[in-house]
User: Which sequence fits this backbone?
């Protein structure tokens, strides 16, 4: 299938598919006219990549899941290296959230001080 067909089947943009290919997560062959041609099984792989990215993993993180990207990654719990990667990513996200909450609290305090409490941030 061509890149547009794969994009339509998976909900990924052609740009994202080229990015996944550049990251080594999917592969294609080239037609005589230079168009990328993907195996139909790539649909499952792309859907799994999108699922993992939507869960908060980076494409570098997803690389660890390569052995199971062609099956149902949601069917079994993560184990071994994949569990380590997921836990590390969760820690990174928790740290970012804490940092953003701290910035928000400082801004809210500054606003409270500057307005004498007359303006309340929208929560």
Assistant:
């Amino acid at each position: 299938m061509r890149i547009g067909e794969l994009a339509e089947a998976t909900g990924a943009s052609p740009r994202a598919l080229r990015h996944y290919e550049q990251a080594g997560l999917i592969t294609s062959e080239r037609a005589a006219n230079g168009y990328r041609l993907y195996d139909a099984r790539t649909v499952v792989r792309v859907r799994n990549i999108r699922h993992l990215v939507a869960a908060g993993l980076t494409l570098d993180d997803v690389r660890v899941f390569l052995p199971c990207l062609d099956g149902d990654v949601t069917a079994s719990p993560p184990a071994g290296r994949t569990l380590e990667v997921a836990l590390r990513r969760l820690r990174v996200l928790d740290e970012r959230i804490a940092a953003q909450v701290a910035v928000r609290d400082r801004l809210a305090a500054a606003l409270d001080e500057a307005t004498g409490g007359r303006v309340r941030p929208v929560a």
Summary: The chain has a mean pLDDT of 92.
